[in-house]
Write a structure and sequence with these properties.
Gelsolin-like_dom_sf; alpha/beta; ADF-H/Gelsolin-like_dom_sf; cytoplasm; globular; single chain
């Protein structure tokens, strides 16, 4: 790679998390020399970094490059996103940069081609609150998101139940229809209008998107109002605001527009092609049809796997020529054109050893090259950086922290750490002696400082407790903006949701990270004695270990992990039969973090009676030895299921957690040897009744030729057995007992003070004077107590 490319990619880091760039083409590509080897010899293309506040916003006239690194030695994913209005120059530049970036990162990342409106589930999973499509592009003057600017006026049409997209449309009643949800964003206020035919799930997703805009783009300083389209008279003042902005509505609204969100249709027709050049001509030769076996793939060649146009995957052998590997993406696009497949067809390019779970699932059997039997797993380093393949055990990783840096960590976690807790909506410094202890009732900001090329670099983690209040979460976002400004916008901001801590976050606390389910770490606050407390410890060294509090019941245990049971007088160290020696060492160290009480080791199957008494008695728990394998032949996959259209459809949920189990859904969990159908309490009755047939259909149409007699297990919400919950980390049995349903979120947004402020800011002058009996300018000159009194009398407060 030449020096220009090295300079271009100098800001590409390998830490876990998300990085996004937009492509800025300063002049046409006609004068560039681009050979078959994708050499770049001109300087008219730029990768412009997108700040964290702008993540999820995509301009239709641009192309973007998105990198997501998971950590833990797994390969990264590189996506290039094509806006519907982007130019051929930008699309070509993006494809070139992806190829060069893949080379820069050692050739191991999986490459994905994404087209606006047809993004893959993996891409959408990075933006849990949805994607926002914005009109224009770089030429429109967009460079960054300023969280302190409120001169915004836009209308967003929100669609989707599982994967939400919001598209900028004309700010007019003509854009509305009865089926969708619309966000009227006016800068200081966002009014959500719910179409009469929209459902609860869509409404909830739209609220979360509105809150995300408020917190991320406005620093938490914007009001949100809610209007039900089938009961507009219940929100007269908000309707007056909408009329003031949109004008008077005339005529009937348009009928609902059917969702065109592309579900994944499982296709049993899978073909494998060998792709090569012969005398300058591209040759595509069929090798086999399903079911496929791994021995069909040879390291010296490249292949295309075609799911009859629903997905095209390219596999690059490690010993294939450099030209073949560099041309893989272009050949896939050329193959799509030759087959007359839609332009939006998903394309994935992966290197031998870095195959995606979806790719492996298309083969009858699969064994990773480095995988060995039993506990002696051989790890392969350098999946991102150009690092020699090395074999090591977990003790060597513990002794050589530099290996962690090679696993997409910015450093060896030896930098400086400073932690604040949100108290009374302000920052309060945390005692360094308690660093690593995070309570579910709090929000924290963690500033990590390290050196790179003798320059200080910063990462700002925003950790949000599951039980923190809305005000605390908003204050956390606001204070993060203040810290970011203090360091002139240089910190990399990482929003961390409780239970989803990235690897580097774990590493900086050196094996002392403890996640308490509830409560607060505020000094002087006494936590009521709730009896015994149980902590699940996962990790094999100081860089990847954390303890998560779970329900102190026997059903929370898992045969493959270490658990710490803290009672009034002793801490039990419970060692499951499937845990390793390194895991036991970290469990012992973590027990010292929790308490200086006496310790007693308890081996699974040899528990004293006092142990069972402390956890409420014996009960079944996750004891499946298959959960013990560190890298099973087929990773578990979770899907949202639907056959409402008469054809079985599924949408995959990447990087799944318990929070992805929606009460209105039927979900399919495929662990390869078993199929679980999870039925939510509010799931469609027809889908619930058809759950068994859905599982059978899934197996019948699976490209790998699955055994139709694979055990199928239907699980009802609230009655999950340990064989199901064992596949989810830190399962919370009380998750659905109360929380963030649409009705509860709506109630929170119906704050009279918030609605009052929206009315004051956005009512027309005439409506304002009719309502309050004085002009807006005279009102604003009154003292605050007098303003409040007039609002109360008007019925606004």
């Amino acid at each position: 790679m030449n020096d220009d490319n090295q300079d271009t990619f100098r800001n590409v880091n390998r830490q876990p998390g998300l990085q996004i760039w937009t492509i800025n083409v300063s002049q046409p590509l006609n004068n560039c020399h681009i050979t078959v080897y994708v050499d770049i010899t001109c300087h008219n293309m730029q990768m412009v970094s997108v700040p964290a506040q702008g993540f999820g916003n995509f301009f239709e006239g641009d192309c973007y490059i998105v990198i997501y690194s998971k950590g833990s030695g797994q390969s990264a994913d590189i996506h290039y996103w094509i806006g519907n209005s982007s130019s051929q120059d930008e699309q070509g530049a993006a494809a070139i940069y992806v190829t060069k970036l893949d080379e820069h990162l050692g050739g191991s990342p999986v490459q994905h081609r994404e087209v606006q409106g047809n993004e893959s589930p993996l891409f959408r999973s990075y933006f849990k609150n949805g994607l926002i499509y914005k009109k224009g592009g770089v030429a429109s003057g967009f460079h960054h998101v300023d969280t302190n600017v409120y001169n915004v006026l836009r209308l967003l049409r929100v669609k989707g139940r599982k994967h939400v997209t919001a598209t900028e449309v004309e700010v007019s009643w003509n854009s509305f229809n009865n089926g969708d949800i619309f966000l009227l964003d006016m800068g200081k206020a966002i009014v959500q209008w719910n179409g009469p035919q929209s459902n609860r799930r869509e409404k909830l997703k739209a609220i979360l998107l509105a809150q995300d805009i408020r917190d991320r783009e406005r620093g938490g300083r914007a009001q949100i109002g809610l209007v039900e389209g089938n009961d507009e008279q219940a929100s007269p003042e908000l309707m007056k605001v909408m009329m003031a902005v949109l004008g008077q509505r005339t005529g009937q609204l348009k009928e609902a527009i059917p969702d065109d969100e592309p579900d994944q249709v499982q296709n049993t027709n899978v073909r494998l092609y060998h792709v090569f050049e012969n005398s300058g001509n591209l040759v595509v030769q069929e090798v086999a049809t399903q079911p496929l076996t791994q021995d069909l793939l040879h390291s010296s060649d490249c292949y295309i796997l075609d799911q009859r146009g629903s997905n095209v995957m390219v596999w690059k052998g490690k010993q294939a020529s450099k030209e073949e590997r560099q041309e893989a993406l272009n050949r896939a696009v050329g193959y799509i054109k030759a087959k007359n497949y839609p332009y939006s067809t998903n394309v994935n390019v992966m290197t031998e050893g870095g195959e995606s779970a979806m790719f492996k699932h298309l083969f009858k059997s699969w064994r990773d090259r480095e995988q060995t039997q039993g506990l002696g797993t051989t790890y392969s380093m350098g999946r991102i950086a150009k690092v020699d393949q090395v074999k090591f055990d977990t003790m060597e990783l513990h002794a050589r922290p530099e290996l962690a840096a090679q696993q997409r960590m910015v450093d060896d976690a030896s930098g400086d750490v400073k932690v604040w807790r949100i108290e009374n909506l302000e920052l309060a410094e945390v005692n360094p002696n308690t660093y690593g202890q995070f309570y579910g009732g709090d929000c924290y900001l963690v500033l990590y400082t390290y050196q790179r090329s003798n320059q200080k670099q910063y990462i700002l983690y925003m950790w949000q407790g599951r039980h923190a209040t809305k005000d605390e979460i908003t204050a956390c976002a606001y204070q993060a903006v203040n810290i970011d400004n203090k360091y002139n916008g240089s910190p990399v901001q990482v929003r961390v949701v409780m239970g989803k801590e990235p690897r580097h976050f774990l590493a900086i606390f050196k094996g002392k990270l403890v996640i308490f389910e509830g409560g607060t770490g505020r000094p002087g606050v006494v936590t009521p004695d709730g009896g015994a407390r149980l902590f699940q410890v996962r990790g094999t060294n100081e860089l990847n270990t954390k303890a998560t509090e779970v329900l102190a019941r026997a059903s929370s245990l898992n045969t493959n992990d270490v658990f710490l049971l803290k009672t009034d007088h002793i801490i039990y160290l419970w060692y499951g039969k499937g845990c390793s020696g390194d895991e036991r060492v970290m469990g012992r160290a973590m027990s010292d973090v929790l308490s200086k009480q006496d310790k007693q080791v308890v081996m699974e199957g040899q528990e004293p009676a006092e142990f069972w008494v402390a956890v409420g008695g014996k009960a079944p728990y996750a004891s499946d030895k298959r959960l013990q394998r560190e890298e099973p032949p087929h990773s578990p996959r979770l899907f949202e299921c639907s056959n409402q259209t008469g054809q079985f459809r599924m949408t995959e949920v990447d990087d799944f957690a318990q929070s992805d189990l929606d009460e209105e859904d039927v979900m399919l969990l495929d662990t390869w040897e078993e199929i679980f159908l999870w039925v939510g309490n509010s799931a469609n009755q027809y889908e619930a009744k058809e759950a068994w047939n859905s599982a059978q259909e899934y197996l019948r149409t699976h490209p790998a030729g699955r055994d139709p007699d694979t055990p199928k297990i239907i699980v009802k919400q609230g009655y999950e057995p340990p064989t199901f919950t064992g596949w989810f980390n830190a399962w919370d049995p009380h998750k659905w007992s109360g929380g963030n349903s649409y009705e509860e979120m709506k109630k929170k947004l119906s704050d009279p003070a918030s609605l009052s402020q929206i009315t004051v800011d956005y009512l027309s002058d005439a409506d304002f004077e009719n309502l309050l009996g004085t002009s807006r300018s005279d009102f604003m000159r009154l003292p605050k107590w007098r303003q409040s009194d007039m609002k109360k009398k008007s019925g606004l407060f």
